Amino acid sequence: MFRMGIIEESLENREILKMFEKYFISQRIEHVPEDEYPTWHTNEYHIPEEEIQELLDTLKEQIKTTWYIHTFNDKTLFVVLRGRWFEMALKKDESWNDMIEYGVKNAKVERRYLENISLHI
């Protein structure tokens, strides 16, 4: 089972969240006054391993530039960026390098966020 957090404001089209309804666990509302979107709605989902890659393929087309989505289980971390997703080790190692470089150059995510992805939702 993978735990996934999706900030609704990170998506081009929130309608795709209908695909995730059966996996929904909870929603947290966060106030981020300095952000372009001052209120974030972070949804937590628990997704079976056999369904994760199909959902990642959908998310990579719907996530906005400058954002990322992450999902993890006890062995693997996936990071979704605009146009691509990456499978990596849970703790930062060389498997993170391609994701960080792609994220900075192509998805326009600030390096500091990609170098410190936490394992919580």
Task: Describe the model.
This protein has one domain. It has 3 helices and 6 strands; from the N terminus they run βββαβββαα. It has helices at residues 52-62, 97-105, 111-114; strands spanning 2-7, 24-31, 39-47, 69-72, 77-81, 84-88. A hairpin with a 4-residue loop joins strand 4 and strand 5. The protein is globular and about 35 Å long. The two termini are 14 Å apart. The model has no long low-confidence stretch (mean pLDDT 96).
How is this structure best summarized?
The chain has 121 residues and is of the alpha+beta class. 20% of the residues lie in helices and 31% in strands. It has a 6-stranded antiparallel beta sheet, with helices on both faces.
Helix content: 10-25%
What percentage of amino acids are in beta strands?
25-35%
Count of domains? 1
Please give the radius of gyration in angstroms: 13 Å
Overall outline: globular
How far from one another are the termini? 14 Å
What's the SSE blueprint?
Elements: E1 2-7, E2 24-31, E3 39-47, H1 52-62, E4 69-72, E5 77-81, E6 84-88, H2 97-105, H3 111-114
Antiparallel strand pairs: 1-3, 1-4, 2-3, 4-5, 5-6
